[in-house]
Amino acid sequence: MNEPNPKRPKTTSQSSLSSFFTIKTTVQKETQTKDKDVSSSQKIDTSSNEPIIPRSVPASLKATWNVYQNACIYRKVRGEVNERTKLAAFDLDGTLLTWRIDGWPSKFEHYELWNATVIDRLRRLYDEEDYRLVVFSNQGLIRQAFTGVKATFVKSLLEWFANLLDRPLSVVLSTSKKNGFHKPSHKMWNVAEECCFGGRTMDVSSSFFVGDSIGGDDDPQGGVDIGFARAVGEHRNANLRFYSPTEFFGPSSKQKRDKGKVAVTYEKPPAAVLQTRAALVSGYLEGPIMLILCGAQGSGKSTFCDKLLGKNDAWVHLSQDTINNGKPGKREMVEETAEKELRAGRCIVVDRMHLDETQRSVFVSTAKRVNVPVHALVLSTSTSLLASRVKRRSNHPAGVEGEKGVKVAMISASKMVMPTYTEGFALISVTATEQGVARFVDQYSKISTAEPNTTSILKQFDLPQINIPSVILGTMKMGRKSAAEIVSKARSLGFAGVDTAPTYNNEIEVGRGMDNDMFCVVKVPKRASTAEDVQKELCNSLSSLGRKQADLLLLHWPSDSETLKSVWQGMETCVKEGFVKALGVCNFSAKALAGLIPMCSITPCINQVERHPFLPQWDLVDFCAQNDILLQAHTPLGQGNNDLWEDPSVQQVVASTGLSPAKVLLLWNLQQGVAVVPRCSSEEHLADIMELFKTAASSEALLIADDLMELNGISRTCRFIAPPFMFGSSSYCWATNANK
C-alpha cells in the first residue's frame, strides 16, 4: 500500500525458533580475565538455509561477547558510537521471548517471540525515538562456564534475536546469583554503561524497563524485574518506568492460543439464558435479582457499583470492605444483609472478588433460598490496569493499595476461575473495557422500572478504538445515478456516517456525496484471499471514495479457514500503517467469531449482521456481550418486506406508539444496544429516520418495555440476505437457511 521505509526493513514474520540449526560448541577452560572476547568459542554449522548468525553481517551490527569481573557476560556492538542516553531495556525469558512448551525450555524450538509485534516495536524505538536497545537477564545456570554449553545456548539465542531485529542490541547477563549482579540489584545497569556504552551515563528518567517478574505467589522469581527498575531508580535518584510485557507488547502468542482454546469451545447457551439476555438488553427484566461481581482488586467493582447506584439508587450495594458501618466486616454479615434485602424485594449487587466457585456458591445459595435469580458479571481487567489502579489508591478500606497492594492484586488475578452456568447462574456476562462496563451499568439500571432505555443510543456507541454513530447510511443497491445526491442529502439531514463496499459498485459516486467529517466504513470483499489482496482492495476503495483513511474496515464475509489468518493479518497491517482506525467483521456467527479471535492481534470491535425481529440472533447477542464486540444491524428494516412491516406484533407497536414501522424496527435494535445501517432511497425516508434524533430526549418517542417484549416474542424466522455459499459445510457457515 505504500513504499517501505528504507531505514526500516520489513519485519520477518517468523515467530518460532524451529528453524534453528545445530550449534556445535567447544567447551574451553573458564576464563579468569576481567574483559575477554569469548565470541570465538562458538562453532557455527553454516549449512542451514536460515543461520542464526549470517555469514555476512553489516559492520555496524557486528558484536563481541565479553566477560566482566567473572560475574557477567555482555554483548558489545562494534563500531556503535552515538550520543543516545535513553535506554529501552528488556528482560529476555518471558518478555522478548516466551516458551511454546509448559516445562522448562531446553531446545531452540521451545522458544518463540512474545508476539508478532516485538520486532517492529523495538525497531521503532531505535529508528524513530532514539533509544538504545539493551537486554538485562539473570542466567544463573551459566555460573563461570562462560564458554560452556549453557552460555553458548543463550548467546546463540540472543544472536538469532539480534539478527532478526537488525538493529544494534546490547546485552548484559548475570551468570550467578551469588555474584551480586543478579536482578533486582541495579549493578547490571552500571555494567551496560561502562562496557557497552563507552562509559556514558544513561538518563534513567527518560528510560524504561520491561519485564515479566512483578511478584506474587505465582511468580517464582519473586518480583526481580519490578525490583530491578525500582533499584535503578533509587540508585540514580530518578524514576525508571516499568512495564509488564503484556502492557508493552499486548497479549503473548501463547495467551492468544490459550484464549482461543476457550473461545472455540463456545456452545450456544440454554434457551432460558438467551431469554434472560433478551430481557436485560431490552430493559424489561424484572427484579429482584442478585448481581455478583467477579474480579481481583482494582478490576473496577466499586466503580461499577457507584455508577449503577448513580443511575438507579434502588439498588443495594453490599461490600465486605464496608459492611460493618463503613468498615471491613465478616462475609456472614454480607450474606445476612443480602438475604434480608432480597426478601424485601430489592435488587442487590455484591462487591466481592468471587474468584472461584467456592467463593461464589455461598451467595448463589443465598439467592436460591429466597427464589431470586443470580447473575454474574466478570470484570476481566488487564493485569497492567489492575496494577496501575491499585498503585494509585489511597485510603482503601482494606488497605489494598500501593506497591504491596499490587502484589496482592496480582495474586488474586492469577486465581480467577471463570463462572459457569452449572453453578446456578441465570446469566453470566464478561467485559474487559470501560465501554463494556458502561453498557452493563445502563442495562442493569433499568431492572424493575418501566422506563424506556433512554441511553444516548441515538448519537454514538463508544468503543475502545473508535466512537461509531449509532445510525449509519447503508449504500447497498444504491444506484450510481442517485448515490451522490442521496448521500449528500443524508449528510445535510444529519447522517454522520456511510457504510460502503466495493461489491456495491458505487464507491466513486458515494464518495462524491460524502465529506471528510463523515464516519466511513469500508469492506474487504470475499474475493480477497491474501494479505496483499486486502491491501490492494482497501487502496482501491479509498481511492474511489476520495479518502486517505477510513474509520472502520470490515471483513464482508467469513473467509475459508485456510485464508482467514492471512486476510486478517492484512487487515491488521492496514491499521498499523494508519489507513484505518479499527477492524470488524460482517455476517459472522458466534462459532465463526470463536474461530477468528485466537488469530487476532487486533480483535474485531464490531460484527455487522442481519438483525430484525424475524432474525434476533440472541446467541450472537450473548456471545458479543462476552467478548466486548458491538453488534451492528444491516437490513434492520428487512429490505422493506411487507411480511415484516405488516406483522401483527409490529403493527400493534406502531398503533400504540404512533411511530412509523421503520422507526419501530430501528428502535427495536437501538434500544437493545445494537447499531443500525438502514438503506434509504428517498429524501422522505431519510428525514423520517432523522426524526429519531430530534425526539431522542422524549420518552414518548421511544419504545417501552411492553413494546420490546411484544417484538421479541415474534416467532417467525426469516433471513432476507442469504447467499448460497453461507450454507455449506465450512465451520463459518450458518447452520440452516432461516427463511420460513
Structure description:
It contains 24 helices and 26 strands. The strands form 6 sheets. Strands 19-20-21-22-23-24-25-26 form an 8-stranded parallel β-sheet. A 7-stranded mixed β-sheet has the order 3-4-9-8-5-10-11, sandwiched between helices. Helix 14 runs parallel beside helix 15 and helix 16 (531-545) packs across helix 17 (561-576). The protein starts with 22 loop residues before the first strand and ends in a 28-residue tail after the last helix. Mean pLDDT is 84; it is low at 1-60, 260-265 and 450-456.
Quickly count the domains: 3
Rg, rounded, reads: 29 Å
**SS-derived structural category:** alpha/beta
Low-confidence stretches: 1-60, 260-265, 450-456
CATH-defined architecture of the largest domain: Alpha-Beta Barrel
What is the helical fraction, as a range of percent?
25-40%
Distance linking N and C termini? 45 Å
Question: Number of helical segments?
Answer: 24
Mean pLDDT reading: 84
